[in-house]
Amino acid sequence: MNEVFKAPWAISLIAITTVISALLLGVILVGLLSGPRSDIAWIVAMVVIPLVILLTSVFFSIRGYAIADDTLYIQRIGWNTKIDLRNLTAAEVNPQAMRNSLRKWGNGGLFSYSGKFYNRKLGNYQAYATDPSKAVVLKLRDRTIIVTPEHPERFVSQILAISSK
User: Which intervals hold domain Bacterial Pleckstrin homology (predicted)?
Assistant: First the structure.
């Protein structure tokens, strides 16, 4: 790996994650401590589903971004999402890039902002974000991606240096 960039959390992500995690854990506790324990529908609704939501969100959280050769690795817990940078046409820092976006599919703030989004300026894009104020827009031939590394300007410099080789 040439360089690894942390994925810092915005205050909004911390707040959303804290509140939603507390609510999900509360539902799980209510499910375990009250209600009909022999009712499978109760257990599924009050324990299994909230637990799956919480654990899935943790598993898909963004830990950082690593650049190696022609590939960007979005670091998750136990695995990476790979983005081929050979199709890169532009990279720019844009702290406003995620403003006024609609989430089409994905996670809107439980451990990350990730998935498919849309706004008028970018059109459809994929986000792998933890702090929208650090947004870097990567334009590839076939799609647009937003990442939010700790040092956006240095990240863009590194990406552009690799793609110009």
Answer: 64-159
Token duo for residue 72: 């960007």
Read off the pLDDT of residues 123-136 as tens digits, 9 standing for 90 and up: 999 999 999 999 99
Contact 140, 88 (CB under 8 A): yes
Render pLDDT for 66-102 as a digit per residue (tens, 0 to 9): 998 889 999 999 899 999 999 999 999 999 999 999 9
Cα–chain center distance at 111? 7
Specify the DSSP class assigned to residue 22. H
Count CB-CB contacts under 10 A for residue 78. Answer: 7
CA distances from 145 to 44, 85, 104, 160, 164 (A): 35, 11, 14, 15, 19
Strand segments, DSSP code E, in 7-129 are 64-68, 71-75, 80-84, 88-93, 102-108, 113-119, 123-129
For residue range 19-45, what is the model confidence (pLDDT) as tens digits?
Answer: 999 999 999 999 999 878 788 999 999
Strand order in the sheet with 136-140: 88-93, 136-140, 144-147, 123-129, 113-119, 102-108
